[in-house]
Amino acid sequence: MTENEIRENDILAYANSLRWDLNENIHDSMIESLYKEASEISSKAVTTKTRKASGTFDKTLDKIVTSRITGFPIMFLLLALVFWLTVEGANVPSGMLASLLVDTFHPMLRSAFEWLGSPAWFTGLMVDGAYLAMAWVISVMLPPMAIFFPVFTLLEDFGYLPRVAFNLDGLFRRAGAHGKQALTMSMGFGCNAAGVVATRIIDSPRERLIAIITNNFSLCNGRWPTQILIASIFIGGAVPAYLAGIASAGAVVFVALFGIFLSL
Fold first, then answer.
1. Residue 32: CA count within 13 A, CB half-sphere
2. Which domain holds residue 227?
3. Do 225 and 233 touch, CB atoms closer than 8 A?
4. Which end of the chain has the least Cβ crowding within 10 Å, N or C?
5. d(Cα 81, Cα 256) in Å, to the nearest integer?
6. Is 63 in a helix, a strand, or coil?
């Protein structure tokens, strides 16, 4: 081994030992300092005309949705509104699909199998088993998914989920987790797999592992319809009809918030 290689290995070993002594926010600090220095250089080298500040509405909106006073109430209300729209909006198309697939097509399909001389066990397996199960799954699961996914995607496209992560950052830090876990948890509400992959942004192996393990407490899109169905049957059915939608949405919101609490 040459002298240069030995020196290079010593440098790498020393750098690796220093890595564990660095602050967990070293990357954020470096990026912040780079942006600050770039801003100072540009202010010295670039001359701009005085103009009216733009983005005033965006800044005002950011202050409202990330405020300590209004941030959390807005987050809870939006979450409840999304679930209420999902529960209430899915009732009509779900009933229409059930009427079409179960009440109409199922007897027709059974009659067709009997006309063809199909054995009773085969008819029961294919019509009363496979088809009927598929029909109920489609009629119950498809409408909530068709409503919830686009609405949740709109919130993500509008940039609200990063604001939610910003609001929750302090809570995660006080709980001993990394502040960036708030972002991975928010992504977990869309997809747990994406949330787990996103934990790469957390530098500390310990806190990254915590984020991976607790990400499962975030209800992903695949579990929302089931959660909404259970809430509609057991919670919505236990209250008067005019309160069923609100009660079901409240139950789902409670489960989602309970998942956040477990993550902490």
1. 5
2. 159-264
3. no
4. N
5. 13
6. helix
Q: Does the residue 150 lie in any domain?
A: no
Q: What is the DSSP letter of 143?
A: H
177 shares its domain with 261: yes
Taking only the tens place, the pLDDT of each residue in 60-112 is: 777 888 887 888 888 888 877 877 777 777 778 888 888 888 888 888 888 88
Give phi and psi for 151, each to the nearest 5.
-65, -45
Question: Do residues 263 and 179 both lie within one domain?
Answer: yes
How far is residue 26's CA from residue 198's CA, in Å, rounded to a whole number? 18
Instruction: Report d(CA 77, CA 80) in Å as an integer.
Output: 5
Q: Are residues 171 and 226 in the same domain?
A: yes
Map tokens 């209004």 to a residue: 70
Among 145, 177, 195, where does a domain finish?
A: 145
For the cut 80, the answer to whether the pLDDT of residue 190 exceeds it is no
| Domain tally, the chain | 2
**If 0-12 CB within 10 Å is exposed, 13-18 middle and 19+ buried, where does residue 264 land?**
middle
Sequence letter at residue 144: P
Structural contact between residues 143 and 93, judged by C-beta atoms closer than 8 angstroms: yes
H or E element: which one contains 247?
Answer: helix 244-263
Under 8 Å between Cβ of 215 and 196: yes
**30 assigned to some structural domain:** no
Q: Calculate mean pLDDT across residues 255-261.
A: 73
225-241 pLDDT tens trace: 777 777 777 877 777 87
Number of H helices, E strands in the chain: 13, 0
- Torsion angle (degrees, nearest 10) of CA 223, 228, 230, 235: 150
Percent of the chain with pLDDT over 70: 84
Domain-embedded: residue 80: no
